[in-house]
Write a structure and sequence with these properties.
homodimer; alpha/beta; Rossmann fold; 5-stranded parallel sheet; about 35% helix; globular
Chain lengths: ~220, ~220
């Protein structure tokens, strides 16, 4: 990211360490950040509390949007569907996939960005590591940029709204190292999908978080 | 549209005559239609009642999704902002533009379509006539198709979800004629933006509806 002092950016903030690191990276580059947090019925509602705490720690304005997808089909929305076990990276799209979730999130972020005159939308997607989600891939972001150019007032009037994905090519351990250097308050972040009051240490998300910290040689301050 | 007997389609239904005609066109082509209706805080909430009535008249399942855009900036969402006057077609994007609205609607439709295994999303956008909205243009739909291919499970697994815009190149009078031939219950549709209990006959939407019926030589059964 180039220097963007005083420019506005909408940052999609989930409460996990990826989006928290993205927020701190955007701040570091001078953006005036507006966080957008989604309450979409995720089983791990605990992450909403984390997202709010991170936004406050970063001294950023935030909005929580509540949306409901009344259709079923994701273990991230239904407590009676089993979460996937770790170690399946790259094999198939995990059951935690929520149909078109990032597309919906980006659409709202785009609407928000257009409304406040923001020049960028920042999202902490990364193609490597555990993802396997189609809406985390570079090709998808390239296609969405074209949607912005052709389908918004800002785009057609020549005011570009960029999508910034500073983590896209990074591994989890690289993200941990970056976050550490940016002084991201890791203790406030939340990764576990399970929805309990403590990290389960068994789900995909716990597994790859622990692996990331381990490979980075950094202690996770969230007691695992 | 080719013959699609038994295939599922999600139809974005606003309650206006464009989306009603799109629904009937999709049914005619054999689609099993699932209507998606948005309560997005529009000043003309009356159209929600129209949308439900049309879905029922067409014997189609429907869902009403409530979403709120807490940011401001559209005369369609704010009653104290003046609606544009008719006759500005092509001059500029009207004040009724809601930032990224159709992108948000399509994202939800995409999520719904993926979840129920629908093969198509139908939307009644048309580039001609009064629109001027960037998210009604063919280039935008082409870009969004690429988002579907790259950013969804369905797309990456080779099951395409098509976006069908049967009205895209049509004028309002052609839409009226098509709707008439498909026996669209025009009396149930609602176009006025104003939010009153009767059509205002002054807003953009009333103006172009009246013009369309007049040019088609068909009587509008909604008492104007």
């Amino acid at each position: 990211m180039r220097n963007n002092k005083g420019r506005k950016a909408v940052v999609l903030l989930s409460g996990g360490l990826d989006s928290a690191t993205t927020l701190y990276a955007a701040k570091k580059k001078g953006f005036h950040c507006f966080c957008l947090i989604f309450d979409y019925g995720q089983r791990h509602q605990r992450e909403l509390r984390a997202a709010r705490a991170i936004a406050r720690a970063a001294h950023c304005a935030y909005r929580v949007l509540k949306i409901r997808l009344p259709w079923k089909g994701s273990s991230l929305l239904e407590k009676n569907v089993r979460l996937p076990q770790p170690g399946r990276a790259g094999l198939k799209i995990p059951s935690t996939y929520v149909a078109a979730r990032n597309i919906i999130f980006l659409s709202f972020a785009l609407s928000y960005a257009e409304s406040i005159g923001a020049e960028a939308i920042c999202i902490g997607a990364h193609a490597q590591d555990y993802s396997g989600y189609p809406d985390c891939r570079p090709e998808f972001y390239a296609a969405f940029k074209k949607v912005i150019r052709t389908g918004t007032k800002a785009g057609t009037e020549g005011r570009s709204i960029r999508i910034l994905t500073p983590l896209l090519a990074k591994t989890k351990s690289q993200i941990v190292r970056l976050g550490n250097s940016l002084k991201v308050p890791f203790a406030l972040t939340w990764s576990c999908y399970q929805g309990g009051s403590k990290p389960c240490r068994r789900c995909d998300s716990c597994y790859y978080r622990a692996k990331g910290f381990q490979e980075a040689g950094i202690q996770d301050p969230l007691i695992y």
